[in-house]
Amino acid sequence: MAVKKTKVLDKWKLKKWYNVLAPPMFDNKEICEIVAAEDSALVNRIVKISLMELMSTSSQTSMFTFLKFRITNAAGNNAQTTLIGHEVSPSYIKTFARRGKTIIHMVVDVKTKDNLDIRIKVVGVASGKISETTKRNLRNTIVEEIKKSGSTFTYDELMQEILYGKLVSRVFNRLKQITSMKRFEIRKTEKQEVFA
């Protein structure tokens, strides 16, 4: 009896490569290339890249800072993205959060000038052991500075302030007026997304 041969379709050959582009705040630079069978399969995928790779900067923090982009649209060979947050590597945070120091972890929810909600997670490290009153003063100052910046800037502007260290520098200078500070970092940001 003859065996009927069927042609096996190679699904890989049907897929195509897309250039994933950063949003305009990063001059639409190419983040990476990604493969998909069709445009719609790319929408809502998350792409992660280090700040150092994207901006070609050599600062120590940028090496350990990772940006998260969500693909919003794909057409032709390009996929457009939006920045949905960033994260500083936990291993980097541990390098300055040593024994004998006071560590303050906080989460601050902010509404930007263009009415977007962002969750900002921070860590502050004081040089030694500090009192509960000083901790409270530090926390209040952190919340005050971050909320003030949130209402002053649009989402894109605020993220640039965070990624380029301007907001961190402003908060750190305020905290130093209260007590001796070792470090202050915005370790994570998350854009509060709404899906239809």
Structural account:
There is one protein chain. By secondary structure, the chain is of the alpha+beta class. The protein folds into 2 domains: 14-88, no CATH class; 90-191, Band 7 domain (Tetrahydropterin Synthase, Chain A). It contains 7 helices and 8 strands. Strands 1, 2, 3, 4, 5, 6, 7 and 8 form an 8-stranded mixed β-sheet that branches. The termini are far apart.
The gist of it:
The protein has 196 residues and is α+β, with helices and mostly antiparallel strands.
Q: What's the arrangement of secondary structure elements?
A:
Blueprint: H1 11-14, E1 16-21, E2 30-36, E3 46-50, H2 51-55, H3 60-63, E4 65-75, E5 78-88, H4 90-96, E6 102-111, E7 117-126, H5 132-152, H6 155-163, H7 166-176, E8 181-191
Parallel strand pairs: 1-5
Antiparallel strand pairs: 1-2, 3-4, 4-5, 5-8, 6-7, 7-8
Helix pairs in contact: 5-7
**Main beta sheet:** 8 strands, mixed
**Number of helical elements:** 7
Q: Please indicate the count of domains.
A: 2
Choose one word for the global shape: elongated
Tally of extended strands?
8
Q: Top keywords for this entry?
A:
7 helices, 196 residues, 8-stranded mixed sheet, alpha+beta
